[in-house]
Every structure is written in structure tokens, then in C-alpha cells.
Amino acid sequence: MTTDFQQAREALGRRLRELRGTATQRELAAVLGWPQAKVSKLETGRQTATPEDLMAWAQATGQPATAEELRARLQGLETHVRSWRRQLRAGHRPVQDALTVEYEQSAVLRAWQGAMVVGILQTPDYARHVFSRMAELQQSPRDVEEAVRARMRRQELLYQPGREFHLILWEAALLAGLAPPDVLAAQLDRLASVIGLDTVRLGIIPLSAHLSVPPANGFWLYDERLVIVEEWHAELWLNDADSVALYGRVWETLDKSAVYGTHARRLIGRARSHFTDLA
Description:
By secondary structure, this protein is an alpha/beta fold.
């Protein structure tokens, strides 16, 4: 959880404390029908309020007009941290559509992914397995086919003049067994085919490469205005200049360890041979 996010959650908690006024936590909890511990956690920033929590709080403290203010504070907080639980309430398709908007607004996109092939280069079969596994993990609606179609439509941006995709994968991502061997082999063929596109610069960091920073979670940089970081519990959408600059430096550091062109093709071919032998 980011420091900025926690500070914003604590600020929201202080505002809730102000609205409670002279009533005790126990008294407010009784009115709300909540455990006192929940009131305490919300006020101290140890729990994130839901919109329904804030509406109930405003009503219970006799200040219903503050509900809109509280919701605005929560929306600002969630601009940075978008939990998968909330994002996936309607499935993966709406999440894909929201990402497409960011892609379309960007001219230069940079990505690092150490665990799997980046979505913009996934085949339909590979994407189908990824979405299925994530829906199972997050216990979200299974709109897999709609999500796959949305992801494939976004790949049309790869062929639009004026866009640049600078993508770095760890060699481990080529070997991750997220699908049957024949699907993985076809996915690796897809990766090899984009090397040479004038809009795509695909680098692979060999497992044996010297790394100046740890290969942590994947992220995307959208021009110099936004970075989206992938966590298990949420996506972090960071648009402050310091965060964008930090992830830019991380990307540039990883880029120094990556290989391109013929050497990248060689690593992809080696991984493909592994799955061909398993098929």
C-alpha cells in the first residue's frame, strides 16, 4: 500500500472523527449497528470505507449533507489504489475497456513484466487462460470471452503509426506454464513475429543477466503522465510526477539488462523448443 494512499485514508479517518463530534465510538457504533472496532478502524485509517459506509456515517452523525464530500474524498483515494475486488464486480471486460482508454490517449508506452507475456502481445488462447485463472483467484464473474475480445481489439493499436511500444519481459515470463504447451508455443511464435514491427521494441532480460534492481511486479508507463502497477490485491494508478519519474528510472535500469533483436529471438526460440518437447 502506498504512503500517499495511507495518508489519504488517514485524512479521511480524521474527517470522520470530526463528524462524530462529542458522541463516543461506542455510541456511534450502536446507531450504525456496527462493531465498535469498525468505527475505530475507519477513523484511524486502518480500514477503507465503502460508499455505503460513508453514507451511513453522514446520516448517523446527523450531517447527511456531508455524504457527497465524503464520497469525493473516497474517489480521490481510489484514484491511486483500485482494488481488484471492486474493479472486477462486473468482470474483466470493463477493466479492459478502461485500460484501452489510457492506451488510446498515449503515444509512448513502456512496460515491464516478469511473470507472463504482456497483454498487448497475448494470443487469444493465452489470454483466455490468464483471464480464467485470475477470475478463479479473485472469485469474480467469468466474462472471459468478452475480456479476450476487448484485449484483442486493443492490439490494433500496435499497427497505428505514431505509437511506440517499448516492452521488456523477463525470460522467466517466457517459461511460465500458464497454459498447455501448444498454447505457450503459439504464444512464443507471436512474440517472435512482433520483433521488427516499427511500433514495437521488445526486449528480453535473460535469467543469467546482471540486474541492478530486483525484478518486482509488472507496470505500464503511459507517456510521462501515468504509471499503473499490478499488485495481487489491486492496481496502483499513480500520476504524481515523482512516482512517474521513479518508475521511469526503474524501467530504464531494467532496459540496460535486456537484449533485443537476434538475441531476443534466440531466447524466445529456446523457450519455444522447451514447450515443443512437452507437447
